[in-house]
Every structure is written in C-alpha cells, then in structure tokens.
Design goal:
By secondary structure, the chain is α/β, with parallel strands linked by helices. The chain has 3 domains: 28-129 and 141-178, no CATH class; 183-324 and 331-390, Rossmann fold; 396-482, no CATH class. Helix content is 45%, strand content 16%. It has helices spanning 2-29, 34-51, 71-87, 156-178, 189-192, 218-232, 235-241, 259-270, 285-294, 306-309, 314-322, 345-353, 377-380, 396-407, 415-424, 429-436, 446-467, 474-482, and strands at residues 54-60, 91-95, 102-106, 111-116, 119-127, 145-152, 182-186, 200-204, 246-252, 273-276, 299-303, 363-369, 387-390. The longest helix is centred in the first third of the chain and has 28 residues, at 2-29. Bound molecules: adenosine-5'-triphosphate and magnesium ion. Adenosine-5'-triphosphate binds at residues 213-216, 255-261, 370, 391, 429-430, 433. Adenosine-5'-triphosphate is lined by residues 213-216, 255-261, 370, 391, 429-430, 433. InterPro entries: AAA+_ATPase (IPR003593), AAA_N_dom (IPR025753), At3g28540-like_C (IPR058017), ATPase_AAA_core (IPR003959), ATPase_AAA_CS (IPR003960), Mitochondrial_chaperone_BCS1 (IPR050747), P-loop_NTPase (IPR027417). Pfam families: AAA (PF00004), AAA_assoc (PF14363), AAA_lid_At3g28540 (PF25568). Keywords: ATP-binding, Magnesium, Nucleotide-binding.
Length: 488
C-alpha cells in the first residue's frame, strides 16, 4: 500500500513539474528571438522524430494564392465522406454544390481510421483560424480547412506511392457519381474579363433525351454507343498511342433530324457535362483558348451550327487564289495580322488538336451543321472530327422508335401504309414527333395520331408531286433564310 501511495505522489509531482515547466516555457517563448525559436522548434521536431514513429501529411483546401480548391482536397473529402458515413461518430452534413444530395464529411478533430494493404491510417479534419482581414471574402467563408493523415513511418512509401493515388481515384469517382451534371454556356469576354463573372455560366443539366428515345437506324446507333464505350475506357490506349484523350464528332443533316437530341443522348449516356460554346461572342483565338482551358474533364464541348457562327472558309478561299497548288492541308493557312482579334479557322483547328487541346482529358468535341459541304475540309478531317454522323429524314425504323416513345405501341395495322409513305416522302423526325404528340391524354388512342401522321405524309406527297420538289417543307427553308442560313 505504501508503495502505491509513494508512486501516486511521485506521479503527481512529475505531472505538476511538467505542467509548471510548460507554463514557464510558454511565457519564456514570447521573449525568444524569432530565429532562435525556429531553431528550437526544428530541434524539438528532430528529437521527437527519434521517439515518435508516426509521420503526418497535410492536405490543404487552398494553397498559396490559388482561388480554386485543391483537387486532392476535394477528392479526399469525397473519399472520407464515403468512408466516414460508416465509421465516424460526429459528421458534418451539407448540401452538395449544384446537387440535392447530402454530403457527409468528418467533423473537426474527429478521428477516422482507414486500413490499406496492411497499413493503418488515421485521418483528422481541422480548420485554420482566419489569418488576416485581407483574406476575408477571398473564399466563401474564409475558413480554410485541411486534412491530416498519420501513419507509421515504415509505411511511408506505400502511402506516397499507392495510398494517395487510391484516395484520389476513389474520391474522383465518388465526386462524379454524386455530382449534378451541368450545362455551361460562355459569358461574353467583356463581362468575365473584369473578373466579376466566370468565363462559363451553368445551370443544372436535366434533359430526358437518351439513346432509347433517339429515332435513328438501330445499327448506326449501336455503332455510336460502342464507339463511346471504347472512348470512355480508352485512357491507357490514348496514352499508349501518344494522343490526347479526346474525340471529335461531326453531326450533320437537315434541321429537325435530331442533332441536338443526339448530343443530349451522348451526355446522358456518358454522364458528362456539356459546354455549349456560343462562338459568335468569342472575340479572339486567345479567348477561345482560355475558354477551352477552363473546361473540365468528362465533358462535351459543343459548337452548334458551325457553318453559321463563323465564316471559317472565307480566309481559306482568299488564300487559295494566292497559293498555287493548295492541297487543302491546313499548314498553308496564312497567318494574318488580325488573327488574334478574331476567331479564325486556324484558331479553331488549334482549339481542336493543337498543343492546348491536350490540356485536360476525357473530352468530346461536337460540331453540328446543316450544311456539311460548306465546311473547310481541314476542319472535319479524320483526327479532328473522328466520326461523321449523318442525321437524316425519318425512315420506318426511326418512326417505330418514335411511335414507341410517343404512343407506347410496337405495331399497328396502319404501320404498313406509313412504311410505304415514308419510302416516298422525306419528313423530319421532328415533324413525325409533332404529329404523334399527345399532351395531357391519359389513355392514348394510337390510331387517331397515326391517322394524323398519315394525313401529314399524304399532304407532303401531294405537295411534292405538284411542285416537283423533294419532300422538304418549304417552311423550313423560309425559316432558315430568316435565320440567316444561306441556301444553295
Ligand atoms: N432523331 C430523333 N429522335 C427523336 N426525336 C427527334 C429526332 N429528331 C428530332 N426529334 C424531335 O424533334 C425536336 C427537334 O430536334 P433537334 O433539336 O434534335 O433537331 P436538330 O437536328 O438539332 O435541328 P436543328 O438543325 O434545327 O438544330 C426534338 O426535341 C425531338 O423531340
Ligand atoms: Mg439543333
């Protein structure tokens, strides 16, 4: 008993001595010159590293003057949110950005452990105290957070080599899974140049068009789906062959044949964001490049009606007369003084496959046009626009898909008649869709809508026979003329 009492009194003495020394040290520290303090800190660290076998990495939310959050921090947050919802007892819960999902992350100073290839890792979340007033407003709430991961020093190689990569990859995948997809459009240069607005504005992307609802030749459709699947899995392949991981699609065909619907179907299939680039508001090649750099991976960059937005062939044509024997290769496109003041064909070619195009990865570039013949061959050559997809008038197979979508039927006695009429009359899928559309009817009388379609087809047929024109409605031409599209 005496021994226990002696031990207790000894430990009390030691504790109070250490406590006293700590207080004296804290008071004394204030008077030590800064350099000496630094030296003593380094010495303490060296000393403790002999007796402490654990090491610690810090993952900051923001670094230096950067305005954007660290990608590793974002991925870590997602990784831990997935992990900690199972093990942490105190969690932060917030609504995800651009999403209506709840994000769970570890609360401050809460410990979460993770096991990886035999190593144990301890995670903690902390928050820096605001440093100075001029930081206020730089980030939303000036609360810079960071994570620490602590591990035994014998696992350092494993943590640096494999574990951090594992956290990054998993975290990225979880972020993508949780995110609400976005539809971006570019702001005119004069608004974002003043640093008030970002280059791209976005809204949530919610469009129901999918490959199932898209009416086109099923074989062609399957080819596109296969191509997209290959592209999605192609990270290693692209790096092996030394090409940037991107793919160009050219969608061409008359108005109302489903080019825009195809873009949304691709975006929904791949679960990518869409950057809808309004080229007419882009003032120079430099601006185009900046916009491109600001796009993220797993996205589709779209330029619709490429033939209408810019006179891309003008410069080439005028050069042709000067350059005898022009073989159509883009090397011969003459650089003009005003090149940096306008978006030019060479600027656009650079955007697609120049040096800058390799920034970022997993991007699809899509151009649409109603007049493929107006486009410069350099713009659409293979390698730039890898796949040319013709969207054409409605054939019987396409009609069957539309009837299935709109009326929910697989077959009908009027199908045979419609099949024969579609062989004779050119009609856009948009017009067929319009005839089959029945808003607000709970019970659809399919026959009624099929008859409406037959009537439309018969009228078109008679009009063609009378006027000797092909089956395209004159109204479409009129609309195009009023929209500034030059018709041949
Ligand atoms: N192939 C199709 N499959 C399913 N729906 C279609 C198809 N083509 C057109 N539609 C219907 O017609 C509407 C217009 O089609 P869309 O905007 O995709 O045509 P577009 O080819 O992009 O026309 P434009 O050249 O005028 O931009 C769509 O909202 C869709 O309802
Ligand atoms: Mg369109």
């Amino acid at each position: 008993m005496d021994q226990v009492a002696a031990l207790t009194s000894l430990s009390t003495k030691i504790t109070s001595t250490i406590g006293g020394l700590a207080i004296i040290w804290a008071m004394f520290r204030q008077f030590i010159p800064y350099e000496l303090k630094q030296y003593l800190d380094a010495l303490t660290l060296k000393f403790t590293s002999y007796i402490n076998p654990y090491e610690c990495f810090v993952i900051e939310e923001y670094a230096g003057d950067r305005m954007n959050r660290h990608e590793l921090y974002i991925a870590t947050k997602a990784y831990l949110s997935d992990h900690c919802s199972r093990c942490a007892r105190t969690c932060r819960v917030e609504l995800g950005k651009d999403s209506d999902r709840f994000l769970v992350s570890i609360g401050e100073r809460v410990e979460v452990t993770d096991d990886f290839n035999g190593a144990r890792i301890w995670w903690h979340a902390y928050m820096h105290a605001p440093v100075s007033n001029h930081n206020i407003g730089r980030h939303s709430d000036d609360q810079r957070r960071y994570y620490t991961l602590t591990f035994h020093k014998r696992h350092r190689e494993l943590i640096e080599g494999l574990y951090l990569r594992h956290v990054l990859d998993k975290g990225r995948a979880i972020t993508i899974r949780n995110r609400q997809r976005r539809l971006f459009t570019n702001n005119p240069y004069n608004s974002w140049s003043s640093f008030i607005k970002p280059m791209w504005n976005h809204v949530q992307f919610q469009h129901p068009s999918t490959f199932d609802t898209l009416a086109m030749d099923p074989i062609k459709k399957q080819e596109i789906i296969d191509d997209l699947n290959e592209f999605r899995k192609g990270k290693e392949y692209y790096s092996r062959i030394g090409k940037a991981w991107k793919r160009g699609y050219l969608l061409y065909g008359p108005p109302g044949t489903g080019k825009s619907s195809m873009i949304t179907a691709i975006a929904n299939f791949l679960e990518y964001d869409i950057y809808d680039m309004e080229l007419t508001t882009v003032k120079s090649n430099t601006e185009l490049r900046k916009l491109f750099i600001e796009t993220t991976g797993k996205s589709i960059i779209v330029i619709e009606d490429i033939d209408c937005t810019l006179d891309l062939t003008g410069k080439r044509n005028s050069n042709k007369s000067k350059e005898e024997g022009d073989d159509g290769s883009d090397e011969k496109i003459e650089r003009k003084d005003d090149e940096e003041k306008n978006v030019t064909l060479s600027g656009l070619l650079n955007f697609i496959d120049g040096l800058w195009s390799a920034c970022g990865e997993e991007r699809i570039i899509i151009f649409t046009t109603n007049h493929i013949e107006k486009l410069d061959p350099a713009l659409i050559r293979t390698g730039r626009m890898d796949k040319h997809i013709e969207m054409s008038y409605c054939d019987f197979e396409s009609f069957r898909i539309l009837a299935q979508n709109y009326l929910g039927i697989e077959s009908h006695k009027l199908y045979e008649m419609i099949r024969r009429l579609l062989e004779e009359v050119k009609i856009m899928p948009a017009d067929v869709a319009e005839s089959l559309m029945c808003v607000g009817f709970s019970k659809v009388d399919a026959g009624m809508y099929l008859e409406r379609l037959i009537k439309t087809l018969m009228e078109r047929k008679e009009a063609v026979e009378e006027q000797g024109k092909d089956g395209i409605v004159e109204e479409v031409y009129k609309n195009n003329v009023s929209n500034g599209v030059e018709l041949k």
